[in-house]
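Supplementary notes (optional reading)

For those who missed the lab, this is the record we used. Protein: Beta-hexosaminidase eukaryotic type N-terminal domain-containing protein. Length: 246 residues.
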Amino acid sequence: MRELCGMQVKTDRSSLKMRVTTSIFIAAMLVLFVYCLSAGAVFTSGIEYIDKNRNQKSENSLWTYICENESTCTRKKLAEGQERVSLETCNTMCATLQVWPKPTHVEINNKSSSTFNKNQVTIELLRAVDKVKDDLNTAAKIFMNNLPDVGESWIKDVDITSLRIQIIVNGSDTKLNMSTDESYGVSIINIENTVFAIVSAPTYFGARHGLETLSQLIWLDPVAKKLRIVHDVKIFDKPKNFPTEG
């Protein structure tokens, strides 16, 4: 009798063990099934996302921007043989120069633009007393650091051989006060595929303003995949001072 009871217990344990094992196996298979479904959905979504981006890029390549009424850039279908123009380039070349603060005087002579690479830029101190050279070099370094970086894959087939920024400062002021002359002039010309950007000012502070204005005339063209600068323009500005009385 005891042997029969023992056999029954062993049988029940074996049966329980088998049921537990079977349950674990089924649960594992269910988890694997759900995982496969999720992975498949993610993979499908990834493929759809890539296709969507590819189609978007393909669609974008069929459009260009046209300047209308010398004030507004309108997106148009790209005609066969027509050169694509980015919105950034159209906005800069279409209306008056978008510079802030608005300069006192802007002279435009057949406004054009050219592509270039950052490594083609040089900054020269044509005239400056030793007292302000360190400050000017610091301003020039900030200017260069603020230029957008372009990947090496974009660096080829530019319009100009070099961009030479020349700075002229006549004064020696290094401390800003209410009577400091912060006026400046910026002249950008293209001579035989070399663009000269001349920044002239009576003080270092004016030259610093001039470099800031010059930086607003340079942009990254996503269509050309290069930096671009507007030239054949002259700008003069004199920030207003508000001296106190007494």
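If you only remember one thing from this example: Residues 2-7 have pLDDT under 50 and may be disordered.
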